[in-house]
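note to self: dont lose this again. the chain is below, predicted strucutre after it. 155 aa total, dont forget to put it in the shared folder this time
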Amino acid sequence: MIEVSQGAFVDFYRRVYPETARLAHLLTGSTIASEDLAQEALLRVAGRFGELASPDAYLKVTLTNLAATWHRTSTRRQGREQRSAPPEAISQSANELLDALAQLPFRQRAVLVMRYWADWTEADIAAALDCRPGTVKTAASRGLDRLRRALEEDR
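---
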């Protein structure tokens, strides 16, 4: 095992936590779950920090996998958690978009968030979701179509 100073991980944590928590929130739609998932992903990185060639990439894949697991089990928790952002913090149009995004299947939601919010490449998204780049393109296209239809229905 490679020795890494505690300060190196602390610096890494401070640099990536805000973006990691925001990404988790967009993937789950839940402030509570996003904070838990961000912490869990960073905890897993901490255990292997010294041996990782790219802690950022490992963190992205770990967070994506945790969010996918959260979605698989969230149907059992439905009704217990609700988005907890104060209404004044988010505009009406942003709320509509978040509501429409929440209706998408996890893979479509993850692809759209990673591609358009986090600005990941198709290759990075494919690696994080353990699929082919063509699957990423298909999920993005279908997800955008569903978002458009959902937003048009609200008008």
